[in-house]
Amino acid sequence: xxxxxxxxxxxxxIAFTTVCLAGCGQPSGTxxxxxxVYAMHCQACHGQHGEGGLAPELTGEHYHKNVSQTIxxxxxxxxxxxxxxxxxxxxxxxxxxxxxxxxx
Length: 104
Ligand code: HEC
Description:
Bound molecules: heme C
CATH topology: Cytochrome Bc1 Complex, Chain D, domain 2
CATH superfamily: Cytochrome c-like domain
Strand content: under 5%
Number of strands: 0
Shape: elongated
């Protein structure tokens, strides 16, 4: 009985690790697609090149937030930053634009 439980736990662990190796927590965005999302949804406030305007500049944003933190910021945006996820931005678009922001 005990052995079976240990064995099951090991299997769960292996399954989980395999899923994680396949991309757990790895944002799947590309800066190229992100640039388009940025131009449509962010540039009006953050400036054409992330230089800022109505909203703070985003150049060098990667010094304060990694890509995952930027994704979280956009998903759980609090005023005055608008809530753009789940509409108009999809999960993929949030990933893409966050990778793009990290490149500014
Ligand atoms: C309506 C204007 C507006 C739009 C559109 C907008 N933002 Fe913002 N954003 C803001 C404001 C204002 C802040 C500052 C919020 C604060 O400091 O609490 C902010 C803050 C941020 C920050 C954090 C900056 C920091 O200093 O840490 C990030 C990252 C960000 N925005 C990314 C984006 C992205 C990416 C988009 C497009 C998907 C976007 N924003 C669209 C207004 C906007």
